[in-house]
Amino acid sequence: MIDIPPCQVVAQHLIDQSIGEAPGGTGWIIYMSRMPDTPAEAISVLDDDAVMDGRVATGERIEHPRFQVQIRGKDYQTARAKGIEVLNVLDAIKLTNVVVSTDTYILHNIKRTSSLIYAGVDPDTRLVNFTVNGEMTVSLTTP
Fold this sequence. Notes:
Largest sheet: 7 strands, mixed
Strand content: 35-45%
Radius of gyration: 16 Å
């Protein structure tokens, strides 16, 4: 278990891989644990419950945090294309270092638990939504 929200590690990795920018940028913006009304093209990474995977001999619990990535865009093709970019980045993770603030986390792997899911059109804004779900193995490197 790590001491920050696991979605923060995933969000930072997506930013590091140029899928989008941190809040305040001008392109696709990547948020953590929220999806504001604007901008129209945005990505949000949210925590989900963790999968418990037993304990080791020392008594340490092993758990795999789960997460959801939400992708919102102006039209179906654009949002879907961005969603496929997200899938490709998640699928490529293998022993990947991610720096959040001053700490380095190792994303050992990510297992997607869904494909890219079309979540429909918002009836008020007419923006298109997709999601993808996953679970990860992540740890803090030794300082």
